[in-house]
Structures are given as structure tokens and as C-alpha cells.
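Self-study notes.
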Amino acid sequence: MSPARLPEADFQRMLELAPGPSDELPSDLDFSFLLAFIDSSDSQVKHLFRSQRCAPGEIIMQEGKPGSEIFIIRSGRIAIFKGPFEAPVILGYRGAGDMVGEMSVLENRPRSATVVALAECELLSTDQQGFAQMLSQPPFLGMNLLGMLSHRLRAIGETHQSQVVELEGEKRHLLEIERLRQETADLIVHDLRNPLSSIMGSIKVLQLLLPKDISAESRELLEIALASSARMQRLVDSMLEVSRMEAGESELVMSEVDLAQLLEQVTENVLRPHAQEVHYSVQTDPGLPVVKADRDRLERVLANLLDNAAKHSPNGGLITVQARRLDASVQVSVTDAGPGIPPEERTRIFERFAQVSREKRARRGFGLGLNFCRLTVEAHGGKIWVEPGPQGVGSRFMFTLPVRIP
């Protein structure tokens, strides 16, 4: 059986990261004394080792797989890394006179890293029994070898401790940046609320003052302006509400809500300005039960889902709003005919500032809207998720709410 090799593209990337042949290879210990002892004519351990050659790109040992051999590098260069071949985390490099694989043998555990030959290598290898016999040879050999391995473990521990301290510092820095960003966003949002309210108020007054013979086109423009202002107001309110909910500073104002009536009302308000671009329908089970919920927040959840559906549906596409009774809950869904969401991103889109990227297309952004939806639905004791639409076309956003038990 041919030895396992790195895929050529991954091996070439690793070569680009590695020091050149003439550069000094970073190495913490020198086991060349062990090579000299093995090669000596009166050595009692020479028979314990076998020689093997490895071509560039050949995998000497692989992370997670059982390992029963140690390797002493007689010549050549190797790289030690963790993680997938296409995105490796380089742990170090080794050259002639170094040893690898001893920890797996000593602990009798799977390999903790992958080792690959960067150049033509000659290795000496022995198994666990051979390693034990070697340690039982002249006392100076075993003591020196154990001392060097202890030094290597201590050095690894110190390196890990240093990395932990560095990561903690980076974490504090990132948290501070996030705090400042959130404070800045909150200030901007607060400053947006007053001019937005003024714009919406002015449009409403203008609608009342317009002469009766004003053209239908002009009235339609005002309706679009009012709907767009209302959408922006919902986005601003969502930004503030998300911050409060995440900080635990927001409480639900519960009341009995006629869900069928709310669905009709919100769907009409949000989608009527898009009536020339999309078709829509509302389908609810007869006798849909009353739910106990925060009406204002539930209305914004529905409005956010409908806004997204309208934004990403093609011209002439159908948006369907449905509600049905389950055993102890009500399930609501909003289905669009848009480009859909890849499976790997269906959970991430409910996070703050998440966007769905599509090759050669504009990014499908959800901003804070879906994050607000998730926090609100979960605060009500429900769940929210997304799945493909009928026949795999579009997306169906679904959420559940507990039914009030009489």
C-alpha cells in the first residue's frame, strides 16, 4: 500500500509557510547524541531501530490515529501541524537529530498532531517495546533522554501558558471594542428617533391636507414614503430592543392576542406598498386560539419577516403567511420565493449583524431584524428557524408560540 500523502495543493501551501532549506530550523532539543549511540559499533540498541525513507509530502503520522512508534530524524525536514490539511495550524518544524512521536508512545494515546515530510527524509523508528528497552540501556542514556523529554514538556507548558495570557488580553481588547461599538450604535439610534418621528408625522399631516382631487399617483408616493419611514422606525426600535434584551433590561408586556387578526393586519400594512411587485396571501386555521404575548414585539417580529420576504422575492413572486395550531403551541410561517439560504448559514442568520453571502450576487442582509426575532420568540418560550420553501424554492421562516392554557 502506498504511503498517505498530503494533497499537492495543500503541500505547496505548507512549503510556502516553511523556512527554506538553508534557514535555521527552529528546534527545542538536539537528540543527535542518540543517533551517535545507535550508530556506534558496540551499541546494544541498533537492532531495535529500522530505517525508512519518506518522500516530500508523505504523511509520517496523522492526528487522531493510533501511534506506536517514535521517529528519530537522521536527515531531512518535517513539519508538525494540527487541524485540516487545507487550513493547518503549524506547531513547529524539526530537522536532523530531532525526535517526534514520543508522546503518543509514552501515553499510549492517539497522535495529537500530524507530521509531514517537507523534503526527502531518512528516519529511524522503533515501537513502544523498543523504546522501553532503549531506556534500560546505559544509565546515562536513559537519564539524558528522559531529562530532555521533560524539558520539552516544560517548554510546551510554558508556551501554552504564554498563549493563554495573550489570548486573554486579546479577548479583553475585543470586548472593549464591542462595548464602544454598541455604545456608539445606541447613541446614533437615539439620535435617529426624533427626526424619523418628525418625517412620519409630516407625511401623515400632508396626507390629511392634500386636496381631494390630488392624483392617485401622488397619494401612492406618499404611502410608499410612509411605509418606508415605518420600516426604518422598526429597524431603529429593533436595534434598541436587541441591546436591552441582551442586557436583561427589557420585560415583555403580555396581553391576549388574536393571532389571526394580527397576521391579517400586519401583512396588509407591510406588503400593501409592494402589491405591484409581489403577491401575498394569509392562511390561518379556523378557530385559531388566542395567544398570550407582547403584542407590540410580536407585531415587529412579523413585520421584520415580511420586510425580508418582500425585499428578497422576485417580481411577481408569492409571499404566503400561514398559522396553524399544534398540540400546545401555534406555528406561524412566512414563505417567500427568493434565492433561499444555504444550509450552513440557516442558524447563523439569527445572530447579530449576520448576512448571507452569495457568489456573484449582492449579499442577502438581515442586519438586526432576525436577531430581534429570535430574542423575542425565545423570550415568549417559543422557537424560530428557517427551512427551504416548497420544492426547495425560496425560504420559509417559522416560529412557534405557546398557547395559553385555559
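Second protein, same conventions, sequence then structure:
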Amino acid sequence: MNCIFCEIVAGKIKAEVVWRTEAAVAFLDHRPLFPGHILLVPERHIVTLADLPTAQVAPFFQSVQKLEHAVEKALGAEGTFIAINNHVSQSVPHLHVHIVPRRKGDGLKGFFWPRQKYHSDEHLAETAEKLRAFMREQ
């Protein structure tokens, strides 16, 4: 398996690592939206958020919290944008969280894709019911 993030975690590919725990590594994105754009990855090769073992979810997202705070305080950011792509737009198939510094007027306009409306109130209700039914079965 050839995974650039696994290579970064192993130290085989150079990256600016800014945080490391037993289970995760954070480094600067080499093509940032803005300077200070961090990627946090699990140390083990895990493809999507759904694949992350339940016991690792809390520690992983505690790292997200610490990094979000660091971006605001260390870089003087007014806020952050935090995102995860699963499969679609996931340029590297290894779970990673984007932690991006934000400032008013920085040019980043909400989400990067056009918003879509539901076809009707019925479509809205049907979509909600499909999700509720799935969650009841879990």
C-alpha cells in the first residue's frame, strides 16, 4: 500500500509536523487554503471517519479541539473551518481533518459547493425518515 500520509507519519516523507500523540499526527498542508492550514491524521491507516474505532473517536477529536485553539491563538485567527471528506473529494484515502484558520474577509465563502434545495416538503420529510429509520436500526 502506498499512502503519502502513512509515509509522513513514519517520517519517510518530510512534512512540518505541529502535533503528535500516540494515535494521531498533525502537519501543515503543503497546499494550504491559508497559511496555518493543518491536517490531522490517525497514525494507523484508516480510510474514513466511519472506520475509526469508537475508542479512538474522543481522543482524535480532542486533538482537533487543541489544534483549533492553537490556530486561533498562535496565528491570531478569528475562527477556523474544520472539515472531513469521506471518499468524495478525499484526495488521499486516509482519514484527515482539515483545520483551517479563518479571518473576516478572507475570501472563503461558506461551503465550496452550490447549495441545493429539497424538491418539495415531501422530499424533505422522506429524506429525514430514511435517516431516522437507519439510526433506529443501529
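Instructor comment on the second fold: The CA atoms of residues 54 and 130 lie 24 Å apart.
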